[in-house]
Specification:
GlycoTrfase_DXD_sugar-bd_CS; Spore Coat Polysaccharide Biosynthesis Protein SpsA, Chain A; seven-stranded mixed beta sheet; alpha/beta; 2 domains; about 375 residues; Glycosyl transferase; about 10% strand; globular; Nucleotide-diphossugar_trans; two-stranded antiparallel sheet
Length: about 375
């Protein structure tokens, strides 16, 4: 009996050990099937598209066809959207919520991309927790983080006190904060995993009353994503969008207010929004195949081809691309968490080719 129990215990321990070793691979395999099966819907997100006349007008900063006229941006009397950038990071305490992450190399690259590509008048990094190592004290010195310290000559740090510990949904707190900043001061908001690839000068000159510039998400244009927003101060669209958060049950919805609602609002108020084609901000998308496409190792010939394309387009993969959203929620475990300055410099992927010019020489 003792021997039998010992064998059972050994079998159980062995099974647990094998599960621990192989769980990541098993999870990845299950996730692959979940995302790529014919019923996942990702084929609609990946479908081909052609930019419309109104999307191209927004991209080039000219009056939309529905305005009944076409004129260049310098004919507009409206002040341009301010070339001022806002990032938000570290609203959650990483000591109590390890999923909050740390301000790291990837985030450094995102801010560097804005510095290099946009040459903005100012960059504001709004934060609550950002010190390194993480501290339970929200007022800990941000200069202890080497990436923040490296960026500090070029950015303005704006500290925000911790949110009340009453079930705050931090992703949606970030949603409302970005809208508040843009409503008050105007400018450009970037998620901390979004990368500016080329100047925004033309879209910042969007003719009034089109005071907000958003990008379509997905080849099927299923939504307008809030990961990158450009807006004039006191925008009616932004004010209406912000008010929509006042009575939201975040336990029942995730991306409605951040992606679907702005699409619905734009349909109701088309004169207030410049909507860009998917390839301006959000292409390739977040699907499994698109994430793989961005991070797969390239042959020498393919790397040379894409390097030429990036130089031909002034820093982007495609002619009309101004930015790239890295979709860290989908790409972190498989790719983004493994990035280092050495891999960005030494491994040829489409993502790394885009990022190399943002690396400082001494990084």
């Amino acid at each position: 009996m003792v021997a039998r129990n010992a064998y059972r215990l050994l079998a159980l321990v062995s099974a647990l050990a094998l599960a621990y070793v192989f769980f990541p691979q098993l999870y990845t395999s299950i996730d692959y099937v979940r995302q790529t099966n014919p019923f996942s819907g990702q084929k609609y997100i990946e479908q081909a598209f052609v930019a419309s006349d109104s999307e191209l007008a927004c991209l080039h900063g000219v009056s939309l066809p529905s305005d009944g006229q076409t004129h260049h941006t310098h004919d507009s009397t409206a002040d341009p959207i301010p070339n001022v950038v806002h990032f938000i990071y570290g609203l959650k305490n990483p000591l109590t919520d390890p999923g909050a992450g740390r301000f790291d190399f990837l985030n450094y690259l995102a801010v560097r991309s804005a510095i290099v590509s946009l040459k903005p008048d100012a960059i504001y990094l709004h934060y609550t927790y950002i010190s390194e190592p993480p501290s339970p004290d929200a007022s800990a010195d941000p200069m202890t983080n080497p990436w923040v310290k490296r960026l500090s000559p070029h950015i303005k740090l704006v500290h925000h006190p911790p949110a009340p510990d009453n079930g705050t949904q931090y992703a949606h707190l970030s949603d409302t904060m970005r809208l508040q900043f843009l409503l008050e001061d105007g400018g450009i908001y970037f998620d901390i995993d979004a990368f500016a690839l080329r100047p925004f000068d033309r879209i910042l000159a969007a003719p009034q009353p089109h005071d907000v510039v958003l990008g379509h998400e997905g080849g099927n244009r299923w939504g307008l994503c809030n990961a990158i927003i450009a807006a004039r101060a006191n925008s009616s669209f932004v004010a209406r969008w912000l008010r929509s958060y006042e009575h939201v049950d975040f336990g029942r919805e995730w991306n409605y207010h951040s992606v679907l609602l702005p699409k619905e609002m734009a349909a109701e108020h088309p004169d207030e929004v410049c909507a860009l084609a998917p390839d301006a901000f959000f292409w390739p998308t977040w699907t499994w195949r698109h994430i793989d496409w961005m991070h797969e190792p390239l042959s020498r010939a393919a790397a040379e081809h894409w390097d030429r394309e990036i130089r031909r387009h002034g820093g982007s993969l495609f002619e009309n691309q101004l930015a790239y959203h890295a979709w860290s929620q989908m790409a972190w475990d498989r790719y983004l968490r493994h990035l280092t300055p050495e891999t960005v410099r030494g491994v040829d992927t489409r993502f790394n080719l885009l990022m190399r010019r943002f690396l400082e020489d001494d990084v």
